[in-house]
Design a protein that fits this description.
single chain; about 200 residues; mainly alpha; 9 helices; about 70% helix; about 0% strand
């Protein structure tokens, strides 16, 4: 199903994707790495920044491929495969480029890059772009906002979990249990932004 929503301001889409349509707290995409890498703030922040960069890069490439190749050649039936290949290739190329030209940054973020390939939030933003029929500017700002929203959410969860690690928790709540509870409470808190911005 393709929606036609060209009238929505790209700036509105940007802020909505950070707050009211947050990829983690509203759509629950990318939960695997979100839960598993949120034990330490520094690590979570590194992953969040890497996700942001990959989201913007893959959105730009996928948008171009979708409109220049997939639609003209009527390859919609294999678009998922094409998008996944582009995401995996982009992550691999980015990892090699960082290793070659930015070794310091690669040491900090390199371990997070393989995780991004299997982050369903990356594919999710591309599919939202297709369904909502975004223009290029709308798509790029949607990707940037989604990346910032994901980074904000994982930073908040990591900061809370790091602070809670200093306290003794009931055995049944330790680890992923408390992470899911905190994520649910954060999602409820973000509901407070409802009505300010929306891209649904």
């Amino acid at each position: 199903m393709i929606m036609d929503i060209p009238a929505i301001s790209p700036i509105m889409i940007f802020f909505a994707s950070i707050l009211t349509s947050n990829m983690i707290l509203s759509n629950f995409l990318g939960m695997c790495s979100f839960i598993s890498v949120s034990n330490e703030y520094k690590t979570a922040s590194g992953l969040g920044k890497a996700v942001l960069v990959v989201m913007v890069l893959t959105m730009a490439i996928n948008f171009a491929v979708y409109h220049a190749i997939i639609l003209p050649l009527d390859l919609v039936y294999i678009q998922y495969i094409i998008f996944i290949i582009i995401i995996a290739a982009t992550v691999q190329i980015l990892e090699m480029a960082m290793d070659r030209f930015l070794p310091d940054l690669y040491i900090k973020l390199g371990i997070f890059l393989p995780l991004i390939t299997v982050n369903c939030a990356i594919l999710g933003i591309t599919l939202f772009m297709v369904i909502r029929n975004y223009s290029f500017l709308q798509a790029i700002l949607f990707a940037a906002g989604s990346g910032l929203g994901w980074w904000l959410a994982i930073n908040a969860l990591a900061a809370i979990r790091e602070k809670m690690a200093r306290n003794k928790l009931p055995r049944g709540l330790a680890g992923p249990g408390i992470a899911f509870i905190i994520t649910g409470l954060m999602a409820l808190a973000f509901v407070g932004f409802s009505g300010m911005f929306s891209v649904q």
